[in-house]
Design brief:
Elements (H helix, E strand, L loop, with lengths): L23 E2 L6 E7 L3 H14 L4 E3 L8 E6 L6 H21 L5 E6 H13 L5 E3 L7 H11 L3 E3 L7 H4 L8 E2 L3 E5 L1 E2 L10 H4 L4 E2 L2 H13 L4 E5 L8 E2 L5 E2 L1 H9 L6 E5 L8 H9 L6 E3 L7 H6 L6 H14 L4 E8 L6 H14 L3 E6 L17 H25 L4 E9 L5 E5 L5 E5 L8 E9 L4 E5 L1 H4 L2
Helix pairs in contact: 2-3, 8-9, 9-11, 12-13
The structure holds 5'-deoxyadenosine and iron/sulfur cluster (SF4).
């Protein structure tokens, strides 16, 4: 596992090995070629799959190369620095492809989707007039209509409203679930954020918190498990703020949803990300005690360990409240491993504030973490705040923080060596004869073993810690299968 990233433009989850850290390019062929380039978080990966779904009835199917594509969608991320510049440089490349295709009489529709589109739609059309469609994350269900309008008008179409209707209600049921391998899948249950942390663009790009209703989540989860999915990760910018309406009109929280999902035949593992400490209620803590399928790994960003900076960030809790929350979670589920996000160099962060963050890390102990230098996002309160921190100070703090986090990650991985734990195998390993999967704590694990075990969860004795993964051996009964 890679623990930390200073990449300032992507909301990357390099540590999980889940999609989201690199442009994901689509595979397969169809009548009208669709080439999707996805940057950013798992929410974007999920949205790209949904956009592919809504375009399928129009005859669009994924192609590998943009040169074969009648439509190219760039699904963007705005969370940290240089996002817009990256988009423009990618668009420059796509423009050449569009021109080359035009020379041979082929049309190419270029669409920019995602959070950069939401935040900078007008600028995109001004600087890159060859872009045909700009659409914000709330408007993907209108994509077919926009494609038709772009074709008719020949001019650019922009749609970055936050419509009153929720996009969840309009997206088609996806035939093939968005799977990683075939046995793990993401399922978006919540969108947007009302928390307005001082540094963050999400409330502006993704809009207010919106929860998907229970019935549609359960229906999608059922389709996933029926097609072989064994692990579902529930997604949301503020996933534990989810409050969905059930068919009887009652409102469920995430704990109740996890309980219902755990009853689905075939579903062995449930995860959720990303959570906010403020929304970690007693029922959800108890769910970690009561639902074995809820994996003992929780991504719970804290950002800072200084009360002064937490207040400036508008996080709504103190460092001790976070410590107390972790204590209650660990009481409920003693083997729970924690991961977090940290920002160094938020405006006003003194040496003492930074030291308070280091102390919080020492006190809690994280299995995995993501750490970033603060980067001002235009329009957010912190961007205009006084006492911005010099780059070299941010660099030094980030280095110290990452060294400590790396130590903790290594220590955590070392601590599981010698244990026999269930591993869900999802594919073959790098070397012939190997199969690979994940531990309950999201660690990549590989063993020598038969491919027939792929798609199943079996006990593995963890024997060796490698730099970012673990190797192990199957217990004898499984080794023979
Ligand atoms: N600067 C640096 N890091 C940021 N993040 C969000 N906005 C910024 C910013 N302006 C980080 C936070 C968040 C993660 C997804 O990205 O740590 O939890
Ligand atoms: Fe951004 Fe804060 Fe909302 Fe997370 S909780 S998405 S950091 S505003």
């Amino acid at each position: 596992m890679t623990i930390v990233t200073t990449d300032t433009s992507l909301l990357s989850r390099t540590g999980t090995g889940l999609p989201g850290d690199r442009p994901q390019e689509a595979v397969a062929t169809n009548t009208h070629g669709l080439h999707m380039i996805t940057w950013g978080c798992q929410m974007n990966v999920y949205d790209s799959a949904r956009m592919t779904d809504v375009l399928r009835p129009l005859g669009y199917g994924p192609v590998d190369s943009p040169a074969d594509a009648d439509m190219i969608i760039l699904n963007t991320c705005h969370i940290r620095d240089r996002a817009a510049e990256k988009v423009f440089s990618e668009l420059g490349r796509l423009r050449l492809i569009k021109e080359e295709r035009q020379a041979t009489g082929q049309k190419t529709v270029i669409a920019v989707a995602g959070c950069v589109a939401q935040a900078e739609g007008e600028q995109i059309l001004a600087r890159a007039p060859y872009v045909d469609i700009v659409l914000g994350p709330q408007t993907y269900h209108r994509l077919p209509e926009m494609v038709a309008r772009a074709a008719r008008a020949g001019g650019a179409v922009i749609d970055t409203d936050f419509p009153a209707e929720q996009k969840f209600d309009f997206l088609p049921e996806n035939a093939a679930p968005q799977t990683v391998g075939n046995y793990t899948a993401f399922l978006t249950i919540q969108e947007g954020c009302d928390k307005f942390c001082s540094f963050c663009v999400v409330p502006y790009t993704r809009g207010a918190e919106a929860s998907r209703p229970v019935a549609s989540i359960l229906a999608e989860a059922r389709r996933m498990t029926e097609s072989g999915v064994r692990e579902i990760t529930l997604l949301g910018q503020n996933v534990n703020a989810w409050h969905g309406e059930a068919p009887d009109g009652s409102i469920w929280g995430l704990a109740r949803l996890a309980e219902a999902l755990a009853m689905l035949p075939g579903l062995q593992r449930i995860r959720y990300t990303t959570s906010h400490p403020r929304d970690m209620d007693d029922a959800l803590i108890a769910a970690h005690r009561d639902i074995p399928a809820l994996m003992p790994f929780l991504h719970l960003p804290v950002q800072s360990g200084s009360d002064k900076i937490l207040k400036a960030m508008n996080r709504g809790h103190t460092a001790d409240e976070y410590r107390d929350l972790i204590r209650r979670l660990r009481d409920a589920r003693p083997d729970l491993a924690l991961s977090s996000d940290f920002i160094v160099g938020h405006p006003g962060e003194s040496d003492e504030d930074f030291e308070a963050t280091m102390q919080l890390i020492r006190d809690v102990g994280f299995a995995l973490s993501y750490s970033f230098k603060y980067s001002p996002r235009p329009g957010t309160p912190a961007a205009g705040a006084p006492l911005q921190i010099a780059e070299d100070v941010k660099d030094a703090r980030l280095q110290a923080l990452q060294a400590l986090l790396r130590e903790q990650q290594d220590a955590f991985n070392e601590s599981v060596v010698g244990l026999t734990v269930p591993v869900l195998f999802t594919g073959t390993g790098r070397k012939p004869g190997q199969i690979a999967g994940r531990s309950p704590w999201l660690q990549p694990v590989h063993v020598d073993g038969p491919e027939s075990l792929i798609g199943t969860e079996v006990p593995v004795l963890l024997t060796t810690r490698l730099s970012n993964s673990l190797s192990g051996t199957l217990t004898q009964e499984f080794a023979r299968i």
